[in-house]
Write a structure and sequence with these properties.
CATH class of the largest domain in chain B: Alpha Beta
InterPro entries (chain A): CN_hydtase_beta-like_N, CN_hydtase_beta_C, CN_hydtase_beta_dom_C, Elect_transpt_acc-like_dom_sf, Nitrile_hydratase_bsu
Organism (chain A): Mesorhizobium zhangyense
Oligomer: heterodimer
Order of helices and strands of chain B: HHHHHHEEHHHHEEHH
CATH topology of the largest domain in chain A: Cyclin A, domain 1
Strand content of chain B: 5-15%
Largest sheet of chain B: 2 strands, parallel
Shape of chain B: globular
EC number (chain A): 4.2.1.84
Structural class of chain B: mainly alpha
Order of helices and strands of chain A: HHHHHHEEHEHEE
CATH class of the largest domain in chain A: Mainly Alpha
Strand content of chain A: 15-25%
CATH superfamily of the largest domain in chain A: Nitrile hydratase, beta subunit
Function (chain A): NHase catalyzes the hydration of various nitrile compounds to the corresponding amides.
Catalytic activity (chain A): an aliphatic primary amide = an aliphatic nitrile + H2O
Number of domains of chain A: 2
Number of helices of chain A: 8
Chain lengths: 219, 204
């Protein structure tokens, strides 16, 4: 979706302002927000693509005025309601009022180090051979889907070169919406800065994205 | 702007976000959906175990051991795992090497993808709109904010982490470090140099 998350090339946000020796967390609640997000995700009722889509579906005004842990927290509330784990009333009152969905699993403290060390690999076998090889010229598709996609707007309809064939990966555009993993080959596609930004672009700049096969057409 | 929010320091009970997160944790705990002790383990992991010192060890080994550097280039996930660094948001790693000709910078314009297994949790600026918007269109402007000025002819390659590959920049080894141990070299490897918004420290 052409949502607030799709930031590449936007202007007006001000300086990056790196913070010298910044703390890992800026408030105690951020620690709990991180942990609640990860432990709730570990129940296994939504995937990372659905999580990302919940975050980018926040109203743009809300997204841009929220820190990242705020974005995570607001999206987590949406996911928990959507999947029947909490109700609006419970969130408002700050306590459990009824049973909800039974979780597939609960991440216990003793299993947490192993779960973090294992992560959640997204590579999958793809039954077909890759359509492209390194060196191929490709053009990214022009589309504006209502749902989740990982092709940024700045890189749509652009001429690029396949630099590497990576692996088969879960396709976020369907996986975010409960429509299956449908793994596809992913390619690193590199663009000249002038192809993307046109007049005035830094002539020394190249930008790459990692693109699922269906984002690409031969050029 | 999010930037302003990030610099507030309300962590008392009256803070709306603190209350909101507390409510979530309370409800989920009462329903038996999460184990609050698991949250403590997660926080402790990223406060004390998984952080940019991991990545610094990878870089220092790559500087010291050509066979490891070659492995890191070909199969970063396996090479990094051989040092014990695996897991969440590092499942599929790629290492990109700075050269005299090309400087690499990593960004995630669409969210906040970051190689947790080697760099830990991302800094606020990495997740915030100013960096995510500007890195792909004006990387030299971004670098200037970090105090880095590259020669005009240096090529700049920006890697937008749009899929599940996570990128680790291997900065150039500083001059004057011949014969240094991996432990000494690792001290020169800053987090920002592994994102590409900085360079390795110069040898003292």
């Amino acid at each position: 979706m052409n949502g607030p998350q799709d930031l590449g090339g936007q202007m007006g946000f001000g300086p990056v302002a790196p913070e010298k020796d910044e703390p890992l967390f800026h408030a105690e609640w951020e620690k709990r927000a991180l942990g609640v997000t990860l432990t709730a995700g570990a129940m296994g009722h939504w995937n990372i693509d659905e999580s990302r889509h919940a975050r980018e579906s926040l109203h743009p005004a809300d997204y841009y005025s929220s820190s990242y842990y705020e974005i995570w927290t607001k999206a987590l509330e949406v996911l928990l309601e959507r999947h029947g784990f909490v109700t609006v009333d419970e969130l408002a009152q700050g306590k459990a009022l009824s049973d909800g969905t039974t979780p597939k699993r609960v991440l216990k403290a003793e299993n947490t180090p192993a779960a973090l060390a294992k992560g959640g690999p997204c590579d999958r076998p793809v039954p077909t051979e890759p359509r492209f090889v390194a060196g191929d010229k490709v053009r990214t598709k022009t589309f504006n889907p209502q749902g989740h996609t990982r092709l940024p707007r700045y890189a749509r309809g652009k001429l690029g070169t396949v630099e590497a064939v990576r692996d088969g990966f879960v396709f976020p555009d369907s996986n975010a919406h409960g429509k299956g993993e449908n793994p596809q080959w992913v390619y690193t596609v590199v663009f000249d800065g002038r192809e993307i930004w046109g007049e005035g672009a830094d002539p020394t700049l190249t930008v790459s994205i990692d693109a699922w096969e269906s984002y690409l057409e031969p050029a | 702007m999010s930037h302003d929010h990030d610099h507030h320091h309300h962590d008392n009970e009256l803070d709306p976000m603190a209350a909101r997160v507390r409510a979530l944790e309370t409800i989920l705990t009462q329903k038996g959906l999460i184990d609050p002790a698991a949250i403590d383990v997660i926080v402790e992991t990223y406060e004390t175990k998984v952080g940019p010192r991991n990545g610094a060890k990878v870089v220092a080994k790559a500087w010291s051991d050509p066979a490891f550097a070659d492995w890191l280039k070909r199969d970063a996930t396996a090479a990094i795992a051989s040092l014990g660094f695996t897991g969440r948001q590092g499942e599929h790693m790629q290492a990109v090497f700075n050269t005299p000709e090309t400087h690499n910078i990593v960004v995630c314009t669409l969210c906040s993808c970051y190689p947790w297994s080697v760099l830990g949790l991302p800094p606020v600026w990495y997740k915030a709109p100013p960096y995510r918007s500007k890195a792909v269109i004006d990387p030299r402007g971004v670098l200037a904010e970090f105090g880095v000025t590259l020669p005009a002819e240096t090529k700049i390659r920006v890697w937008d982490s749009t899929a599940e590959l996570r990128y680790l920049v291997v900065p150039a080894r500083p001059a004057g470090t011949d014969g240094w141990s991996e432990e000494q070299l690792a001290e020169l490897v800053t987090r920002d140099s592994m994102i590409g918004t900085g360079l390795a420290r110069e040898a003292a």
